[in-house]
Amino acid sequence: MSALDSVADRAVRQAGAYRFHRRHRTEASALLATIEAERGPTDPALTRACDAYAGDVLGWRGYAPWLRVYTAVAGEFREGWIPDNYYGRVVLPAVQGPYGEVSKLKPLSRRLLQSDLIADVAYWVNGGLYDRDLRHLDRAALASVLFAGTDRAVFKSDDSIQGDGVHVLHRDRFDPASVDRLPSGVFQSWAEQHPLLATFTPGSVATMRVTTAVADDGTASLRAAYLRFGRAVDTHVRSGSHVRVAVGLRDGRLAAEGFTPRWTTLTAHPDSGTGFAGVAVPGFAACVDAVLELHRRMPFARCVGWDLTVDADERPVVLEWNAGHNDIKFSEATQGPCFADMGWERLWRPVARIPAPRRPGQ
Predict the structure, then answer these.
(1) Cα–Cα distance, 145 to 165 (Å, whole number)
(2) Residue 332 parent element (H or E)
(3) Over its length of 362 residues, how does the chain's per-residue pLDDT go in tens digits?
(4) C-alpha closest to that of 82 among 295, 326, 245, 263
(5) DSSP tag of 347
(6) d(C-alpha 241, C-alpha 232), whole Å
(7) Which H or E element spans position 23?
(8) Cβ density class 19-47: b for 16+ within 10 Å, e for less
(9) Which of 51, 209, 295, 306 could tie 220 with a disulfide, CB 3.0–4.6 Å?
(10) Residue 128 CA from chain centroid, whole number
């Protein structure tokens, strides 16, 4: 690479980093304003603690905005918090590398993780239609696969995030020819959620995000959990409208407060009126055991956010795994610091180069 190419490449990377951090600063500042409008201004001493920690421990004060958000939610500053932009720019390249990107290719999930807990029933990839065992599937047979025992199914395109790229399919309106208009992705069976979850949102399936991490010794452990509810107008959970409630890691019980997308608080679902405090998530322990086992099967991506629901028999149903920039900011604010023992706050520091051994006589 010529010197000119090197300069141009560095300029492109710097421009990308600037846009990345500016987007995070804007998002964090908007959320902080909303939180403080509801709870009152943050103690200036706590704000100074955020700024100092970002600069002294994490190496740059540009990581402070998310620390301020976490502090406003928690009502105190806690050492060990990981700002979301630090996570994306420093942690993920070190602990995920390109392996985290594999989770975006949804038809690979069942193949890689080797689990029948994953809800996949068919795949549409690069113009080919396949069943869950990757055998060619005729379009005429697709409806019988999708709607076996239910009137609904789901299609998720590759790299779908925050509820976008998700289509709820209905037996009476399904046209097999419509598959040709879809991008590559996965068809999943409709999960009949547990009746307790349906009391919150009967029209859409509540999902639980469970975050796990793999330590240097290969041990997978539970780090965070929260439940996501859709709204009455939604066919599925969407980040633009969902309600999130932290789940206790020891007992699987919901926190007293839930949060809207703007991080304002509420004590009950705004549509059904069902309260959150103390409600035990059915099958929580089984969900945790399931994702820990799955993470042990795919330890290369060291931090994963698993999306599950729980069926009527309290069995976990795995909907997807997220190992790209999986969300940690909500969990850090409500349950964190979630990763204080991982040493991630040191990853930004340059690693001392070990000189190559000298040959005899040199």
Answers:
(1) 21
(2) helix 329-335
(3) 566 556 556 656 677 777 989 999 999 999 999 999 999 999 999 999 999 999 999 999 999 999 999 999 999 999 999 999 999 999 999 999 999 999 999 999 999 999 999 999 999 999 999 999 999 999 999 999 999 988 999 999 997 665 568 889 999 999 988 999 999 999 999 989 999 999 999 989 999 999 999 999 999 999 999 999 999 888 889 888 999 999 999 999 999 999 999 999 999 999 999 999 999 999 999 999 999 999 999 999 999 999 999 999 999 999 999 998 998 999 999 999 999 999 999 999 975 444 444 444 44
(4) 326
(5) T
(6) 10
(7) helix 3-39
(8) eebeebbebbeebbebbeeeeeebeeebb
(9) 295
(10) 29
Spatial CA neighbour of 318 closest among 142, 106, 164? 106
Question: Hey, what are 102's tokens?
Answer: 């594999």
**In the structure encoding, which two tokens stand for residue 322, read together?**
């997220």
Tokens of 120: 């996949």
Select from 337, 331, 336, 282 the least CA-distant residue to 310: 282
